[in-house]
């Protein structure tokens, strides 16, 4: 709720604000519903359930954050953008799909 309050406070009055969320139940509490009723310009968009491909996107952005943004020094938005684009171009030269696998077969989820 603090995050949403801060976002609304930093935007011009009545600007449309779109927030993309996963389907976690904490995003659907009575407190959140009350907030949305008080701020009709804020819209939530939930990712589809079981959309594991989004995990790959999230993993990639996490890698970008760790490799470029964390502890980075940027003199302007243009500088940040330039460094991100340079990273993307270099990354694309050796990019490989993310792969998940169980390393411990004893912990696999078994059907009933």
What layout of secondary structure does this protein have?
Blueprint: H1 2-10, E1 17-21, H2 30-38, E2 42-46, H3 53-69, H4 77-94
Parallel strand pairs: 1-2
Q: What's the story with the biggest beta sheet?
A: 2 strands, parallel
- Helical content stands at 40-55%
How large is the count of helical segments?
A: 4
Element pattern in H and E: HEHEHH
Tell me the overall shape: flat
User: What portion of residues belong to β-strands?
Assistant: 5-15%
Helix/strand structural class: mainly alpha
Mean pLDDT: 86
Task: Give a structural overview.
The chain is mainly alpha-helical and 112 residues long. The chain contains 4 helices and 2 strands, in the order H-E-H-E-H-H. It has helices at 2-10, 30-38, 53-69, 77-94; strands spanning 17-21, 42-46. A two-stranded parallel sheet has the order 1-2. Strand 1, helix 2 and strand 2 form a beta-alpha-beta unit. The termini are far apart. The model has no long low-confidence stretch (mean pLDDT 86).
Features:
112 residues; mainly alpha; two-stranded parallel sheet; 2 strands; 9% strand; flat
Write a compact overview of the structure shown:
The chain is mainly α and 112 residues long. It is built from four helices and two strands; from the N terminus they run αβαβαα.
